[in-house]
Amino acid sequence: FPGNNGGSNGNSNGFPANNGGSNGNFNNFPSNNGGLNGNFNSFPVNNGGSNGNLNGFPANNGGLNGNFNGFPANNGASNGNLNTLPSNNGGSNGNFNGFPSNNDVSNGNLNTFPSNNGASNGNLNSLPSNNGASNGNLNSLPSNNGGSNGNFNGFPSNNDVSNGNLNTFPSNNGASNGNLNSLPSNNGASNGNLNSL
């Protein structure tokens, strides 16, 4: 159609103001930029995917060496998979399945609800206002801070567990190199076991 630029070594099937695909496939709607060495199937105001797949809705940025399946205002995934709703930032070398206002996951899996921060080298499955897990697992409710090199299963207002397991209720502080199974207002166990009220 009018205002489309040609495809170099690829296919360009588009509507007005679409730019050509270089070494890839480009099937899109207005104001989409071309895909380089990949597939680009999108709606308006999506930027091209380089060496990957971009299937998105408006205002999604391209995936570099990965897959990008998102809704508006999602940023690109680098070397990973990004399946998100609005206002989620990209996953680098991992999987990102989230709802609005989630930040990046680097080298891990992030499955979250709004206002969760990214997991680095681990798994983050949480509800709002949880901070990221570094090299561990974080399964928590709101206002839990991340676990470093361990498992964190808690309720609100629990602080970090480093190199151990923390299964707690509100207002418990972290366990370092040990196990902490407690009710509210217990402080952390260092290199031991704490089972208390």
UniProtKB/TrEMBL annotation:
Low complexity bias locations: 10-33, 79-103, 114-159, 170-197
Composition bias type Polar residues, residue spans: 104-113, 160-169
Region spans: Disordered: 1-33, 79-197
Organism the protein comes from: Rotaria socialis
Name listed for the protein in its UniProt record: Uncharacterized protein
